[in-house]
Here is the input.
Amino acid sequence: MSAAVLAAAPPRPAHRDPQVLRWLGAYTASTVGDSVYYLALSWAAVSSGSPAQAGLVMAVSAVPRALLLLFGGVIADRLGPRRVVLASDTARCLMTLGLAAVLLATSPGLWLLAAAALVFGAVDAVFLPAVGALPPRIAARDQLARVQGLRGLAYRMGSVLGAPLGGLAVATGGPASAFGAAGALFALSLPLLCALRLRPLPTGEKGEKGEKADGPVLRDLADGLRHLRGHRVLGPLMITVLLADLGFVGPLNVGLALLAEQRGWGAPGIGWLLAGFGAGAGAASLLLAVRGRLPRAGATLGWTMVLGAAAVAALAFAPRLPVAVAVAVAVGLLAGVSGALCHALVQTECDPAYLGRVSAVSSLGSLGLAPLGMPLTGAAAGLWGTGPVFVAGAAVCALSGAFALTVPSLRRAELPR
Here is the structure.
């Protein structure tokens, strides 16, 4: 009788599941560690060279990440996501603690910081797909949307806590202290990851080692791309994500700073705008974490992208800072809902055997291709002004939402109950 009752009992909600909470703790520690690491790297680079050289050091980590991200997805599927995340955080822990020791002993040149940034970017290329592939192995399918909401909250918390923690560490003991703090945070994630117990995959799907442990890597990559291309929901969803990233990343990363400068709002104005956007995005993550799902997920995704595009365009015409902050909150809320739904649909629609590769393709737009448009955004703003840049970015975002609404398989996609 007791066995029957247990079998009929519904699964625990994600926010009460010890497995999800362990994963969430590890992800939060790693995310805060990322923020502290990048602040320490920028401070050490500025202290060791010119602003242009420091900018180059900060940019080099994006190169291996963009080039290796798709292969990182293959590694995650082959070896299993927990092993890859565990190995990645171990490597980042050892690297940052090693940098801290070197900085305590001597003053390294920019070449060492650039080399560390390259290694960190390469590790990120395998870490990011594995993080995306891990939730289905620790939570029930009907809880994956909640997990993505919790992940969004953890990401926002990392951004909020990382900068002041890194600044305090630099003020206390210089970059060496900040690198040490980042290493300690990466180390904190390791016992939590080791304690995870993975759920068995459904019958017919692949195990912890992924699809195959041998054979050409390119064949596995082509296999994943074929799976993506032939999927009725995931294929159109990847096009939607790419268009949204191309329209969103440039105006929000470069355009906000230019807008604040032109309107005379200064650095505090940028801070308020980013805080408004973060508050809106955090509210969207909280909504999904509490509700667990949103009805008509595909249609909601498309309409929030269209409305979010209108809000992005409205930023260019906000006359005063309070109005601009209110619009930034709306942009964050709408972008947060659409982004969370994208991640949740990837988690629930994809065969877990391909999830590392699909997560890599999903991340490639925002982390690999879209940042390449930021210099073009700055150049366009110099030629035509900030307003047209926001309007052009909004038009691309609106196109992504319209595309999602015109593809029946994506528009009708639903999250599991």
In short: The CA atoms of residues 163 and 327 lie 24 Å apart. The first helix runs from residue 2 to 8.
